[in-house]
């Protein structure tokens, strides 16, 4: 039975959190960390539920709430996710995207499909609809107040400890730091005041969501 659904919004600490979930629940009871292509492959092969082992307790990955709504309701699972300052999240996602284009060995298929975008600027990237308000898009379909927990990357350790206590974990393992831009942090683009305003405007829904969660911290 699925007890927990962990929606991993890109560049919000989900890889580190996934490793912690594996430690707490056991690798065999935590799903693979679903990538978008994994989800679409599961749909083509008969649907997400058919891709999940029967002993599963935790579902985790780049899955939008609307894609797991039926599982949430069927299992009465607790839904959790992590957010991040929207501008910082976009900048990090852009830097990760550019890093993959410059190092195609990590994902040759994606690199080949996007080779023409190697000179794309931060604002060009951010203007694309697919890259705007991504946090809101992942969470759409369930009001933030109805999530069991929403943590913030800016207070990762403290929120992680709080979540572990809320879930009744007997032991809260150390939180690993994985996939956090260390390899290409020096290449992060600088964001001046004008660019900051543009990025905030392009992600107005995410800004409102992030502010709402910060205001209602006591609810989580």
UniProtKB/TrEMBL annotation:
It comes from Phaeodactylibacter xiamenensis. One of its GO terms (cellular component) is membrane. It holds the Pfam family Sulfotransfer_2. It comes from the Bacteria. GO terms for molecular function: sulfotransferase activity. InterPro entries: Golvesin-related_Golgi, P-loop_NTPase, Sulfotransferase. Signal peptide: none annotated. This is Sulfotransferase domain-containing protein.
């Amino acid at each position: 039975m699925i007890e927990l659904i962990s929606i991993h919004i890109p560049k919000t600490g989900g890889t580190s959190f996934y490793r912690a979930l594996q430690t707490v629940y056991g690798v065999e009871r935590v799903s693979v960390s679903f990538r978008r292509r994994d989800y679409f492959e599961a749909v083509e092969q008969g649907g997400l539920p058919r891709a999940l082992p029967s002993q599963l307790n935790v579902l985790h990955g780049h899955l939008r709430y609307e894609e797991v709504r039926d599982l949430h309701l069927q299992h009465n699972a607790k839904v959790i996710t992590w957010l991040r300052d929207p501008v910082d999240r976009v900048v990090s996602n852009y830097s990760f995207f550019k890093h993959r284009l410059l190092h195609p060995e990590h994902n040759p298929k994606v690199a080949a499909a996007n080779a023409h975008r190697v000179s794309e600027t931060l604002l060009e990237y951010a203007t694309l609809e697919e890259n705007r308000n991504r946090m809101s898009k992942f969470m759409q379909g369930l009001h933030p107040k109805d999530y069991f927990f929403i943590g913030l990357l800016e207070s990762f350790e403290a929120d992680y400890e709080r979540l572990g206590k809320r879930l009744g974990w007997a032991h809260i393992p150390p939180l690993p730091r994985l996939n956090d831009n260390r390899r290409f942090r020096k290449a992060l683009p600088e964001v001046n005041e004008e660019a900051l305003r543009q990025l905030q405007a392009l992600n107005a829904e995410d800004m409102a969501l992030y502010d709402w969660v910060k205001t209602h911290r006591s609810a989580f």
